[in-house]
Amino acid sequence: MTIRYPATPTADQIRRAPKVLLHDHLDGGLRPGTVVDLARARGYEALPETDPERLGRWFREAADSGSLERYLETFAHTCAVMQTRDALFRVAAECAEDLADDGVVYAEVRYAPEQHLEGGLTLDEVVAAVNEGLREGERRARARGRRIRVGALLTAMRHAARSLEIAELANAHRDDGVVGFDIAGAEAGHPPTRHLDAFEYLKRENNHFTIHAGEAFGLPSIWQAIQWCGADRLGHGVRIIDDIRVADDGTVTLGRLAAYVRDKRIPLEMCPSSNLQTGAAASYAEHPIGLLRRLQFRVTVNTDNRLMSGTSMTREFELLTEAFGYTLDDMRWFTVNAMKSAFIPFDERLAMINDVIKPGYAELKSEWLFRQNGSTSASGQREAP
Ligand SMILES: O=c1[nH]cnc2c1ncn2[C@@H]1O[C@H](CO)[C@@H](O)[C@H]1O
Ligand SMILES: [Zn+2]
């Protein structure tokens, strides 16, 4: 006889569960109050609101545009206030703290160094400021009894022409907090193959990269990212659904590209709330993550931009639990997927899975055993002998 645990985790369990985040933009995750403070310090007067609560709402509503291009316009304000060493340090430290408070144990946070040079910093100084801030945030979290490890991904903007330079920067800082590379920005009209030299350079250096692909543009973008550029992971990748046919009787047929992505266990960094805002998915219940999880693609759950989506890892999992009835076992599956797909060394990933993630979920599940004598009766939750 085996005990069947209650099906859905509580909000509190979701928050306390160890979580792994692979796709989170530093310039999309500022606290609204910090944006206000930094704008005031720098004399930046173009903020649409100066009350933190109203500003937070403004970001969420402006990002709720149904188009990636309009969604991306909101980053002009966050980037504008991230132009000095102190500002970058503060934003990075708060990022690590906020993620730790949300129960994230490992995160890869990305940003585009080329967007932080207006105050006179060099690319190397930008990277150093963010790394120092992340280390400070880890320390503050530890002082409060929370453990988190945060790596940085350096992003090149796909409409610009600095990707090789940023790839070299990522490689130069690989033993110093930078775990990989990415390209981001408007997808339509900016195919990943324009940055082939950057990707080929990183492959020659045995380095890692992910590519935003299959978010605002479909299969050709995913195909190029994988087969031309050699991406280790896909940022979003939701449009892979266009290569999957589900017949009326439920039979599923994968096209060649979808089959390749699943066969090769290529990680998909899915960001449900962000996708709803940019129009890449219509609702949580209809988000491709449901089908892709059932088909056992290497799916991971991510926040993308916590400020623009007013979200957190806890909230993304709550929304998915509501939409798909996910259990703690599903959550653990997504989390192990993410940890397997991280860009840190294999032995460290394995240790995180075995020594942090699995024990964390086992601990949460076991809580139920001690609750059964209390008011929440467990009758009916045991499997028949
Ligand atoms: O979902 C997204 N798709 C594509 N680009 C994005 C997304 N979120 C943010 N950025 C872009 O990445 C830059 C560096 O962090 C941001 O400034 C934003 O322009
Ligand atoms: Zn993104």
From TrEMBL:
Coiled-coil regions listed in the entry: none
**Record bears the keyword Lyase:** no
- Show which residues form the site (Important for catalytic activity): 236
CC annotations in GO: cytosol
Task: Extract the GO molecular function terms from the UniProt entry.
Answer: adenosine deaminase activity; zinc ion binding
Instruction: Give the binding site residues for substrate.
Output: 25, 27, 185
Give GO BP annotations, semicolon-separated: adenosine catabolic process; hypoxanthine salvage; inosine biosynthetic process; nucleotide metabolic process; purine ribonucleoside monophosphate biosynthetic process
Q: Which Pfam families match?
A: A_deaminase
Cite the cofactor comment.
Binds 1 zinc ion per subunit.
Q: Which family does it belong to?
A: Belongs to the metallo-dependent hydrolases superfamily. Adenosine and AMP deaminases family. Adenosine deaminase subfamily.
Query: Which HAMAP family does the record cross-reference, listed alphabetically?
Result: A_deaminase
Q: What does this protein do?
A: Catalyzes the hydrolytic deamination of adenosine and 2-deoxyadenosine.
Query: What's the protein here called?
Result: Adenosine deaminase
Q: Which taxonomic lineage is given here?
A: Bacteria, Bacillati, Actinomycetota, Actinomycetes, Kitasatosporales
